# Entry
Amino acid sequence: MALKQRNEKVSQTKVWFGELPVESLYTVGIAGERFFRTLKEKGEFTGTKCERCGLVFVPGRIFCERCLEHLDNWITVGPTGTVESWTVVFLGLDGKRLEQPELVGLIKLDGASTFLVHRLGGVKPEELCFGMRVVAVLKPKAKREGAITDILFFQPVQ
# Structure
């Protein structure tokens, strides 16, 4: 059956039992590469600012998602920010139960208009609150790889 065809009868439906191994390769693009290179080499968060709208995208973008303006004004933001929302995660990316639940937050870095989704550390779920001030904890420079995992977690500002 081609993808454009539609099942007319329930008996035409196919079932797959078990797991489907799916792999994908995500490329970060030109702007993402610059963001991660700067994070790796300098330990800084960068974004692009739209001169027309005033929005600051983190990680940076090549064009503004609101007005489609080309973006080439790179600025430094963070590493501090606020917790806008959070959740407790019980399953890992592989779909299996985690030994210890993890906290994941929606972080708005200081100077940014957009958000990062990342782990929260050094805090218990009952201590979290909207607007909580946090700071990024990075891997030591020698261990950074130029990836989102170079950010270990965000912890409350002391």
Summary: DSSP finds one helix and eight strands in the chain. The beta strands are 45-49, 56-57, 74-77, 80-91, 97-109, 116-120, 133-138, 151-156. The mean pLDDT is 91. The two ends are 60 Å apart (CA to CA).
